[in-house]
Amino acid sequence: MGEWFTREIADAGRLRLACFLIAFIAGFLFIRFSVRMIRRQVRWWPGNVTPGGRHIHHVVFGLVFMCVGGVSGLAVQNGSSGWAAVTAAVFGVGTALVLDEFALVLHLEDVYWSEQGRLSVEVVFITIALCGLLLLGLRPLGLDDVAGDGFWAIVVVLVLDMLVASVALLKGKVWTGLIGLFIGVVAVVGAVRLARPDSPWARRRYLPGSRKERRAQVRERRYRRPVQRLGDWLSDLIAGRPSIKP
């Protein structure tokens, strides 16, 4: 295991990314455990930080960690040193604390335990998936595959990959579009298939009552919603079930 880590992570220049991802996951799991204990009002767990009666959200602590880890990391020249690993881990913890309250920052109100708060968990899951792909050695837009093919080859690949990924995102397929930046065929599949009925693409291009709109709605009920329920179940298992109705 140690030899694999040295060969595939440290020697490959991915130490910082690995430490960031490990700390990010650990930070997210810890803060979700913490808020669930506070929600249950268990006596043995510390409560919210409320100096002078003001509730300090953990996104504030996350910003501090990100500033400390990010600025300190810029000062570390050796990417394989222990200090590089520490600063990346601090940045990862801070990022987890910030993204765990992403929905709160987006709406500028405390929606943590509402249905809108699920967005924070989705953003965290997406971040973990994208960092995992980077850690496996994949690079967005396929740049590694065309790095030696000349300027115009890189331009063509960039334009094509960005185009199909953007179409997939406009069709409401967030996971497909983002993963498609790393694996082009995934973006192509998302771009050519029907859009989700509530997506910007469908609102602009599918006329009300049209065949495409009806097909999109059928696909949403038959395929997307079961997957969404599974995702919500996993989110509730890890992060807790929303309890505040919109």
Topology summary:
Layout: H1 2-10, H2 15-40, H3 58-75, H4 82-99, H5 102-107, H6 118-135, H7 143-146, H8 151-170, H9 174-180, H10 184-192, H11 200-205, H12 211-239
Helix pairs in contact: 2-4, 2-6, 3-4, 8-9, 8-10, 9-10
Report on the structure:
- The protein is mostly helical.
- It has a domain at 1-137.
- The chain has twelve helices and no strands.
- Helix 2 (15-40) runs parallel beside helix 4, helix 2 packs antiparallel against helix 6 (118-135) and helix 9 (174-180) packs antiparallel against helix 10 (184-192).
- The chain is globular.
- It starts with a helix and ends in a 7-residue tail after the last helix.
- The model has no long low-confidence stretch (mean pLDDT 86).
- Keywords: Membrane, Transmembrane, Transmembrane helix.
- It comes from Actinomadura chokoriensis.
- This is Integral membrane protein.
- The chain crosses the membrane at residues 15-35, 55-76, 83-99, 119-138, 150-169, 175-195.
- Beta-strand proportion: under 5%
- Globular, elongated, flat, extended or rod-shaped: what is the shape? globular
* Total beta-strand segments: 0
Estimated radius of gyration = 21 Å
Largest sheet: none
Average pLDDT for all residues: 86
Name the structural class: mainly alpha
Helix-strand pattern, N to C? HHHHHHHHHHHH
Helix content: 55-70%
Protein name: Integral membrane protein
Organism: Actinomadura chokoriensis
Transmembrane segments: 15-35, 55-76, 83-99, 119-138, 150-169, 175-195
Keywords: Membrane, Transmembrane, Transmembrane helix
